[in-house]
Structures are given as C-alpha cells and as structure tokens.
Amino acid sequence: MNGADVLCDVLLANDVTVCFANPGTSEMHFVAALDRKPEMRCVLGLFEGVVTGAADGYARMTDRPAATLLHTGPGLANGLANMHNARRALSPMINIVGDHASYHLPLDAPLTSDIEGLATPMSNWVGRVKGPADIAPAAEAAFRASLAPPGVATLILPADAAWGEVGAVSVGKVRLAPPPAIDMDVVRKIAAAIRAAPGRVGMVVRGKAARADALAIAGQISTASDVRLFSDVLIARMQRGRGRVAPTRIPYPVDAATAVLRDIDVLILVGGKEPVAFFAYPGKPGRLVREGCQVLALAAHGDDLHAALEALRDELGIKPTQQQVFATAFPDEGTPTGRLTEDAIALSVARKLPVDAIVCDEAVTSARRFFALSAFAAPHDYMMGTGGSIGGGIPMATGAAIACPERKVINLEADGSGMYTVQGLWTQAREKLDVVTIVFANRTYAILHGEMKNVGVNAIGENARRMLDLDHPSLDWVSLAKGMGVEAARADTCERFDALLDSALSRRGPFLIEAVL
Amino acid sequence: MNGADVLCDVLLANDVTVCFANPGTSEMHFVAALDRKPEMRCVLGLFEGVVTGAADGYARMTDRPAATLLHTGPGLANGLANMHNARRALSPMINIVGDHASYHLPLDAPLTSDIEGLATPMSNWVGRVKGPADIAPAAEAAFRASLAPPGVATLILPADAAWGEVGAVSVGKVRLAPPPAIDMDVVRKIAAAIRAAPGRVGMVVRGKAARADALAIAGQISTASDVRLFSDVLIARMQRGRGRVAPTRIPYPVDAATAVLRDIDVLILVGGKEPVAFFAYPGKPGRLVREGCQVLALAAHGDDLHAALEALRDELGIKPTQQQVFATAFPDEGTPTGRLTEDAIALSVARKLPVDAIVCDEAVTSARRFFALSAFAAPHDYMMGTGGSIGGGIPMATGAAIACPERKVINLEADGSGMYTVQGLWTQAREKLDVVTIVFANRTYAILHGEMKNVGVNAIGENARRMLDLDHPSLDWVSLAKGMGVEAARADTCERFDALLDSALSRRGPFLIEAVL
Q1: pLDDT of residue B459
Q2: pLDDT at A364 over 90
Q3: Is the pLDDT of residue A31 over 80?
Q4: Greater confidence, A244 or B168?
Q5: B459 close contact with A: CB closer than 8 A
Q6: Average pLDDT, whole number, for chain A?
Q7: Mind telling me how many Å the CA of B323 is from chain A's nearest CA?
Q8: CA nearest B447 in A: which residue?
Q9: What is the mean pLDDT of chain B?
Q10: DSSP string of B168-218?
Q11: % of chain B at pLDDT higher than 90
Q12: Angle ∠(B41,B413,B50) on CA atoms, nearest 5
C-alpha cells in the first residue's frame, strides 16, 4: 500500500466517511486511493469554497469532521473564506491539501506556494506529512486536532508522501481526550453572582449549549433565577421552534445591541467569548456590555457545556422538573397577499417549515424577521455563516443535506451572497440533495446601503451605486439554477411564492425559488 | 479630507484609474471617497476572484496596475488564487484590503483574521496603513512596489485610517527607479557562449521580451546565430500571429519537454527563471534541461529586456536589418465539417481571429492546437493563466476588455475551469465588454484523466469518475450565461460553430458559445 492508502484507512477507521473534493494533479494518488475505498463518499464541488463550506455544514449537523480534498495553495486559498466561517463556528474539519513532491519544491514550479502560510490564519491546526512513514501519525494528529476541541485541521500532503510505498500499517481508532471536568469553584462563583443581581443577569449560549436539551436546562435557570438568555448575532447552530427555549439574538446594529444589554450587570458565557460589535464605527463602542458589567465564563469551547449547565442549575437549587416558559403560537396575523415582501417570505417559511427541517440562513438583511418567527415554527435546526465570510449559505446547505439525507434543508439565501459560491447548486443536483433554496432577489447589497448611511452618506453617486447594486443586468436565478441542473421558478407575489414553496416542500430533490423583491 | 480621499488621490495622481471592487462594510469610507472621484472607473465583481483576475488581465494589457478593493481577510482570501496567477505573470497590481478599525482588532470580532498572513504568500509586497497621516506614503509605497519591478502589492487599510481626518495633503507622481543598466559583461559572456555552441543554444523569452518588437530582435538573433527560441508552457502575454516571430512553447508533459530541450547545451533566459516541470512524477526529472546544460540569464524581471536583446544582437555583430524567418500561411487543410471537435474549433478561431484581438486561453487540454495555429493568424495578443490557479480565464478576459475597449477579446475557456469564477460573465454584461467566450464543453476535468494515466491508473472506478467528470447533470452554459445577462448559444457541429463565431465577431458586446464536444 502507499501513503495515500494509509491516509484513507486512518480516516475510515475513525468514521470520517465523507470527502468533499476538488482534486488536481498533485492529488492523483490520493484520488486513486479513494477510488479503492467505495465506503468513502466522495462529493465533488466545482469550486473549493463549495467544498469547505459543505464540510462546515456537514460538521455542524453531525459534530464530526468530513475530509476535504484541495489542490495545492490556490485550491486551499479558494476554500479559506468558508474555513474562516467554520473556524468561527468551531466546526470540526480535516482539510487535505495536496502539494508538490517535497523534492520538487526547491524548483519553485509555477504552482508552488507557501501552503502553511495560507492555511494558518484559517486553521486551528496545520501539519505537513514528512514522508510515507509519517502519514499515519500525521493523519491521526489531524483527526485529533479536528475534534479535541473541535476545529479546523489542515494537513498538507506532498505528492511523494502519497505515492510512497509503505509496509502494512495497522490503523485504529484515535483516542480522544475527554472534556475537562466541571470546575465547581467557577460554578459556585457564578451561582453567587446570579443570586446577587436578580433580574440583571444574562447568559450567552453557544455550541452544544444551543441544542434543545441544553437549552431546556438554560430555560429552567432562566425561569427560576430570572436570567435572560442570549445568542450571538451569528449562530453556528441552534435548535429552535415550538417547545424549545428561544434565546434573544443580540442585534447586529451596535446601538440596538448595547440597548439590549444595557441592564445586564453579569453576563455569563457558555461556550464562547464575550459578544462584541461586528464592526467598529466612529464614536460607537466595540464592547457591547455596559461599563462595569461582570463577564464570567461558565464553560469554554471544548468543555461539556450540557454538564456545566446542569451543574449550575443544581448549584442554584433548581429542580430538573422546573418548567421553562416559551411562546407557543404564531403572532396573530393574516396570510400576506399581493406583492411579495421579505417579511411575507419569512412568515410563509416559518409557518410551512417541516418538522426537523434544517434552515441555513444567509439572507443577511432580507430574512431578519425569520429568526424571531422561527421560535413558533416546527422544531428545526437553524444555522448561519458565523465568521462574516460571504458565500457560506449554498455550500452549508449542501453539506447539511449530505449529513442528514432524511431531513429537508431550507436555504434562505441573498442574491448577493449566493453568487459567491453559486457552483454549489450543481453539487446539490449531482447528489440529488433535498434542499430548497429561496433567493431573496432584492438586486442589491442591501446591507452595504445601510452601512453607507451608518458612515454618514445619505445620497450616493454613480460609483457607489455601481458597487452596491446588482442591477443592469439583474441576475436571473431561474436560469442560473437551470444551468446547473436544479429546477427553479420565480415568484413576485405572495400567492405564487406560497404555491411554489408548497410544491417544493412536497417533493424531494433540489429546488430553487427566486423570490423577486 | 479623510484618509480614504488621500488614497484615491494618490492612485489617480499616478494614473491608476480603474478599481475592480467587491466592497464590504469596513471599506464604506473608501467607497464614499471613490464616489467623490468620478474619474476613477469602479468595476464591480460579484466574487473576489473576478476582481483580482480582472486586475491581472488589465495589467497584462496596459503594463500598469489597477487597484482592487477587497473586504477584509475572507475577501482577500477569495482573491488569492488569481493573485497567485498575477504574481507568476509578474503583473503590477495594487490590492486595497479593508480591515477593522485598528482599535477594534484586539476584540477579535468574527470577521477578524490575519490579513498579512493571508496576503504574504501571494504578494510581492505587503503593507498596512498605520493611520490617516501614513496613508499617502503607504499608498505611494504600494504603487512603487507594484511597478519597480512589477508585481502584486497588497495594502491593508484599517477603517479608522480611512475615516480619519487629515489636513490638506498634496500628492504627486511617484518617481520610479529606472531599470538597471545592461550588464555588458553578461552580454559578452552570453555572446561567447552562443558562438561556442552553434545550433545548440536555446533562448526562453518572457515578459516584455515576448512583445512583437523584442521578438523581432530575438528572431534576428535566432536566424543569424542559430539560436532556438522558446516560451514557457504557461504564457503571461505574447504578441503573436502573421509577421511575428513565433517561439516554440515548451510542452507540458515532462517527456515531451525534455525531448524538446535535449540538444540544448546553452539555455539563455530573458526575463525569467529556468523552466522546470510543472509537476513531479515518480521517476521523472524536475529540471527539463539536460544534465550539464549551461543556463545563463541575459536579463532578469525588472530589467529592460528589449535593450538587453538589442545589446546581445549588437554584440553578436548582427545588423538591425537582419531578417527573421517565419511561416506565413495556415497549414493547407480544408474547413472541418460535421461533429464539432477541439481541433476544429482551434482552426476556426485561428482563421477568423480579428486583427489585434486579445486571446485569453484557459481551455487547458482543449485548445492545445490553437497555440500552434495562432502563429499564422492575424496579429494578436495571447495570454494564459500563469500560476496554475484555475479560474483565471473569464476574469482575465474581463480585465483585458476594460483595458482595451477597442479590441476584440476571445476567451478560450474550459467548462471545468470556467466554473471557478463564472461570476465574471455578469461583469462583462454590466460593463458591456466586447468578449466572446468559447466554452469547450467536454464535461470532464480532461487533464486529470490524463494525470490518472500518468500515475499508472488506467481503469477508474466510481469514486474517481465522480471526482473527474462534470456530468450528471451536465452544465448548461447557455442558461448560465443567460442568468448573468450574457447572450449565448450552443454548437455541436462545425457549421453551427462557425456561424455562431461569425455572428459573435461581427457584433459588439459579450457573447458566449457553448461548444459541445
């Protein structure tokens, strides 16, 4: 067997059974090895941002890494933006980046680049295989790095390490370190802080603390101890819908965010860092909590967040039978008719959402109402791009659908964002994935128009308009989808949108609705 | 005025009058400043690979930098692959990458990343503006770095440097260092080497040595002193066609390349490095020249290559009136009919090529015959992706058309490569660019099938097939083009292709031909 075979074996032995790929010449031995392993599902993306974004979506839904296969520095570079999102979502991922044979590197052939330099900013771990004999330990290290704690691991595979012959190598399951024990001193300190500031305590839940079972515990603490629950503005994954505790999302605009947190004296972090302003603006604060607010971490990324919440509940003397409080019915409003609007789409999708759907939201400004309404929708998983990289939505939906073939995936997509990785639609068609893509076609980078106002520009001229608007010509999403083998239709009225959504939800396979706004 | 205004002024004062852009929030002050400068042409790309690839195409045709505008680390990351191509083509380029306000960086907001780390591998120069007062010198340094010698300069612009007020700043033209004087010792040494090895000397021409006037001098040397002229396998830009000297392109396959160079005892480099194998293969050499071949650099990147060739010609005692020898007529073969083939397309395009056309060739395996035929075509400029990054073709054609609005641009594009930056078609429609895109739709990564054979795999299985073929579903390029506002049509016979090409060449504006193979 050769090094590439060993790499495949290490991945498969550790249940890494999906490889999102866009291969090139230097990876041909690895492709040949994958070809000998039919138990590995290889999923082609026609652009590397699709590959890494799909691996992110897959990881969020399975809590397990997929492998990616990327072609040298430029192939990795094309995948970096969605690796950035994955890194911020703390998603496990194993990127395999092919490189020239090690002895070829000094010749500085045209495709040579500093792969470590490119990988490091967007990876939690970077390694390079030193030779065929190093491939098993290197692959095991990458696997371990992807999961303990979860993060983006990038393994550089020189061609001669892949093609080099090795003897029989026995591979097995990698032993992962268990999460650290709960620090009861911290739990007691936080319980005391909660008791000392009734009604003025907030808690930000992230990662596995945003799953239904952990949210239920957070909800018990919230109800019994008057703690307000929050989530970040960008949410890696949250289980949401009827019968689930619904934290308040900290708003994106700085003024609104500071207003929401104004009365908080103690902010408890479960699985992440202190929330800060997404961008800086002249004269506005970067931290969102008020001066003097005590910020306390109950548990960090990689800790057992569920157990930490249980420990806090118990320390506060709250019974596991304590009920949570949540709204159960949609706001009482009629069914919108006539000209289609963003809010009408949000309401329609929230009302029609199938049980156990997965919602991938990259609609930026357009689907703002959906998140609020989704608290009343059927139980579902909700995910967003987390690092501010644009172009995560279509790939993330693709990966989520590979991870959960029995669940409907709804991708709320902006026309601006969707174009960055539009190639992902082809993978949805190729793999016959059950994804409904709803494109909010407002033909503008609407968020940037807002940001121009934020910087004090109210009337814009020709140069700015041409950089912020997606018109002349308008994108025709029905044709784009058709070009990649995805059925699609257009709606500009509420009635037509509802009919298309009903139809898309009642069938299987990819479908795209261009919602003209 | 603020820092962003100063930056615009420095660019404009130095005749940087085109900005390819994909802006985001942290660049809003720069966008507002550009909006106050109608003399700057702002060209929106819907993906950053379009932006940097277009800047590369623009630079190749003008020998001047365009600016690009990229949004923080992920926006830069999306542009890196085509920066790699630009770096390998030695194209001048000034990337302006917005970043958070400097005081916001320690908060590690979601979009924060190591921009220097990302930029360095694909840039010849990286700088960060330290504050509003630093913006003029930093912009001037970036401009200088982009031209002397030409290369990719990346300037990081923190938002607070862009919005910070500065007093009146006077900006002017940056003085560039002249190229170094010709080293006559080197010229004499090379002339002696040529005389000592008659019939066994080769010369590789690159950069401005591949323009018609310099090629003419190289052709005089070739004719008078029996020197064989070569070009790299990947060509940044070459002036080619009837009445121009046509170097032999060193083939891509290693065996063919070493065969071409087998009889060369002295290889003279004009403007670049020794050609090496694109990839390493087990048991094959990385260097292409034979053992013992003397490799001598007449001039390096940044030198005056034209003057160096003149000096060598004079040193060899060759008269400026010496004629060159070149073929003048197409091979005598009929007009292909029936089922469309790659070679029929190559012949048709070469025969019909308008005078002064610009050919951007990213057809990889499919247009191999075109380059040979182009020696007999109407005089034109020929360009390829130079670093092996896929996805350069559509953007490069876009930038070339912005640079030369009066010239027809022909983009020979592969269906695999074209998908990486397909968004560039929209920019062609938006800017009404005179680009004819010919997609060689073979529905496969044909080069990788060849490479699988090169690594000894002759029969491939399901996993490899699904990673190397672009079928199930096939891409429908007519719909893709229509989706972005570009008129398009499909041909699967030679007759239909010829008719479509005639029609596309007789009109102005973007048109795409899907050539089904």
Answers
A1: 86
A2: no
A3: yes
A4: A244
A5: no
A6: 96
A7: 34
A8: A25
A9: 96
A10: -----PPPPPPPPPP-HHHHHHHHHHHHHSTT-EEEEE-GGGGSHHHHHHH
A11: 93
A12: 30
Q: Which of B326, B344, B348 is nearest to B239 (CA)?
A: B326
Size of interface A-B (CB pairs under 8 A): 325
The CA–CA distances, whole Å, from A170 to A132, A135, A173 equal 14, 12, 10
Per-residue pLDDT band for A459 (boundaries 50, 70, 90) equals: confident
Please give the residue of chain A at the shortest CA–CA distance from B461.
A35
Q: Dihedral sign, CA of B259, B262, B264, B267? A: positive
Residues 6+ apart with CB under 8 A from A222: A203, A228, A229, A245, A324
Banded model confidence at residue B365, pLDDT cuts 50, 70, 90: confident
Question: Is A155 in contact with A139 (CB distance < 8 Å)?
Answer: yes
Do A463 and B37 meet the contact criterion of CB atoms below 8 Å apart?
A: yes
pLDDT at A235: 96
Span B473-501, mean pLDDT? 98
* Number of Cβ atoms within 10 Å of the Cβ of A106: 11
Confidence label for B30 from pLDDT (cuts 50, 70 and 90)? very high
Q: How far is A256 from chain B (nearest CA, A)?
A: 17
Name every chain B residue with its beta carbon within 8 A of the beta carbon of A118.
Answer: 80, 118, 121-122
Chain A hits for B75, Cβ within 8 Å: 81, 390
**Mind listing the domains of chain A with CATH numbers?**
3-163 (3.40.50.970), 184-315 (3.40.50.1220), 342-516 (3.40.50.970)
Q: pLDDT tens, A405-432?
A: 999 999 999 999 999 999 999 999 999 9
Other C-beta atoms within 10 Å of A368: how many?
Answer: 16
Chain A within 8 Å of B454 (Cβ-Cβ)? Answer: yes
pLDDT of B200 > 90? The answer is yes
Q: Which residues of B touch A101 (CB under 8 A)?
A: 280
Among A51, A86, A63, A147, CA closest to A385: A86
Identify whether the C-beta of residue A467 lies closer than 8 Å to the C-beta of residue B21.
yes
CA distance B218 to B204: 10
Is pLDDT of A325 > 80? no
More confident of the two residues A195 and A323: A195
Compute the nearest-CA separation of A141 from chain B (Å). 24
* Closest among B240, B264, B244, B260 to B252, alpha carbons compared: B260
Strands, sheet with B511-516, edge to edge from the N-terminal-most edge strand = B238-240, B380-384, B357-362, B409-414, B435-441, B511-516, B487-491
Per-residue confidence band for A170, with pLDDT thresholds at 50, 70 and 90: confident
Nearest C-alpha in B relative to A99: B279
The verdict on B200 touching A (C-beta cutoff 8 Å) is no
The span from the CA of B16 to the CA of B139, in Å, is 11
Among B12, B26, B31, which would you mutate to test the A interface (most chain A Cβ atoms within 10 Å of its Cβ)? B31
pLDDT at B333: 86
Interface probe, candidates B12, B37, B46, chain A, greatest A C-beta count within 10 A: B46
Whether A459 and chain B come into contact, CB under 8 Å, resolves to: no
Question: Could you tell me which residues come within 8 angstroms of residue B304 by beta carbon, excluding any fewer than 6 positions away?
Answer: B179, B182
Of B100, B387, B480, the CB nearest to A480: B480
Please tell me which of the candidates A25, A40, A454 has its beta carbon nearest to residue B451: A25
Q: Is residue A64 pLDDT above 90, yes or no?
A: yes
Smallest CA–CA distance, residue B490 to chain A, in Å, is 13
Across A455-472, average pLDDT = 90
Cβ A86 vs Cβ A385: under 8 Å? no
Cβ pair A313, A220 in contact under 8 A: yes
The C-alpha angle with vertex A476 and arms to A432 and A342, in degrees rounded to 5, equals 85
Name residues 16-55 of chain B within 8 A of A (Cβ).
21, 23-26, 28-29, 31-32, 34-38, 40, 42, 44, 46-47, 49
Residues of A in contact with B457 (CB under 8 A): 28, 32, 35
